[in-house]
Amino acid sequence: MAPGGVAHGSRRIPTSKIGGFVALTKPRIIELLLITTVPTMVLAEGGWPRTSLVLITLLGGTLAAGGANAINMVVDRDIDKLMPRTQGRPLVTGLLQPREALVFAIALEVIAFAVLWAWANLLSAILALSATLFYVFIYTLWLKRTSTQNIVIGGAAGAVPVLVGWSAVQNNVAWAPVVLFVVMFLWTPPHFWALAIRYADDYRAAAVPMLPAVASLQVTVRKMVFYTAVMVVGTLVLWPVAHLGLIYGIPAILLGALFLWGTIDLGRNATEARAMRVFGYSITYVTLLFAALTIDVLVRSPG
Q1: CB count, 10 Å around CB of 259?
Q2: Does residue 3 belong to any structural domain of this protein?
Q3: Phi and psi torsions of 193, nearest 5°
C-alpha cells in the first residue's frame, strides 16, 4: 500500500531523530490512503467489518506506505536538495543518513507484510508489497525523472489501498474494488497536477518532467479536465456495480460535478491560487465520496 501521485507533506523541519524517522514516512499522505481503505472494507463486508481486522489492515497499510515513502526519500535525496519545498527533509538536512533510512524503510515493509499475512491474509500482504515495489521501481526509479506520464502511471500505486482493504475482508478481488481502483487511478493526475502547477519551478530546478513544469498551463488543465471527467464516470459506474443507493449516488454526482467545474474553471483563469483550490478540493472530494459510500452501506446493512 504505497502512495501514488500525492507528494505533499508537512513543511515542518524535524529536529530529532525520532521526528526524522516519522517525517520519512510522510504521515499526511498516509492519512489520505487510509481514508480510502476503511470504506472499501465496509463495502466488502456489506456492513462494519470486525474492528480488529480494520485495525490490523490500517496498521499494515500504514507501515507499508511509510516504508515506500521512506525509500522514495532515499532515492530522491539528490533532487530534494534542489527543490525549496523539500529542502527540509531529514536526508537533505543531514539529520538522518541514507543507510539508516533505508534499513528503517525495509524493516517497515517486512513488518507490514508479516502483520497483514498473519492477521489478515496473504493476498492483502502481497497487494500491499506490490504497491510498494511499483511505487519504488516504476515511479520513483524510472518514470519520475524520465516521462511526463510519471504521475499518471505511477499513480497506480496509490490506488492499491482499495484492493488491500477489500482483499483483507474477502480474500479476493472483485469488480467493485477494481472500479474503485480505476477511480483512484484517474483521480491522481488532476489531484497532483493541481499541486504541481504551484511548484512547477521546483520541478524545473530539479529537471523533473512533471507535466506543469514542461507543458503549458492550458495543456495541463486540458488533461486534468479529461481525467476528472473519466473519473466521475467511474464513480457512477460503481453505483450499480457495488449495488449502492442514493446516499452514495447523489453525492457522487454533485461532488463530481463540482470537481469537474473546478478544473474547467481553472482552464479559464489558470492561476496558482486557483490550482491550489482545486488541489484542496480534490482531497475533500475523495474524503466525502468515500464517506458517502460508507454511510450508504451502513444505513442499508441488515445489521
Answers
A1: 26
A2: no
A3: -65, -30
Residue 189 to residue 193: CA distance in whole angstroms: 6
Q: Element (H or E) spanning 226, and its range? A: helix 217-241
pLDDT score at 148:
94
Determine, yes or no, domain membership for 213: yes
Taking the C-alpha atoms of residue 173 and residue 249, their distance in angstroms, rounded to an integer, is 23
**Grid cell 517486512 in the structure block, residue:** 110
Question: Domain tally for the chain?
Answer: 1
The SS3 assignment for 10 reads coil
In a domain, 5, yes or no: no
Taking a C-beta distance cutoff of 8 angstroms, is the pair 96, 20 a contact? Answer: yes
Residue 107 is assigned to a structural domain of this protein? yes
pLDDT at 303: 61
Predicted pLDDT of residue 8? 47
Domain holding 133: CATH number?
Answer: 1.10.357.140
Low-confidence stretches of the chain (pLDDT beneath 50): 2-10
* pLDDT tens digits, one per residue of 135-164: 999 999 999 999 999 999 998 999 999 999
C-alpha grid cell for residue 58? 490500517
Residue 132's domain comprises 17-300
Considering only CA atoms, which of 168, 164, 163 is closest in space to residue 119?
168
Give dist(CA 88, CA 80) in Å, integer.
Answer: 9
DSSP state of 25: T
Closest CA to 77 of 68, 60, 90: 90
**Per-residue confidence (pLDDT) for residue 11, from 0 to 100:** 60
pLDDT at residue 32, as a whole number: 81
Task: Supply the pLDDT for residue 30.
Answer: 82
Nine-digit cell string for 162: 482499495
The one-letter code for the residue type at 131 is A
